[in-house]
Design goal:
By secondary structure, this protein is α+β, with helices and mostly antiparallel strands. It has three helices and two strands. Strands 1-2 form a two-stranded antiparallel ribbon.
Length: 65
């Protein structure tokens, strides 16, 4: 995931698992793409870089410069 995010110019933040995260409905070892408006754009329970790639490509999303 780190390589995919770096190649796409996306910031990657890794957080330790907590009971608060579980209480908020987040899944352990999952990936979440947070949109600029704060909403979740992609929730990937399998944490697969190709899912992120497909999400971005299908929507034609590119990092703004």
């Amino acid at each position: 995931m780190a390589a995919t995010c770096a190649a796409r110019g996306l910031a990657l933040h890794v957080f330790p698992w907590t009971t608060s995260a579980a209480g908020a409905g987040l899944a352990r070892d999952a990936s979440y793409l947070v949109r600029p408006d704060g909403h979740i754009g992609l929730a990937d329970l399998l944490h697969r870089p190709e899912h992120l790639e497909r999400y971005l490509d299908v929507r034609g999303l590119r990092l703004a410069t």
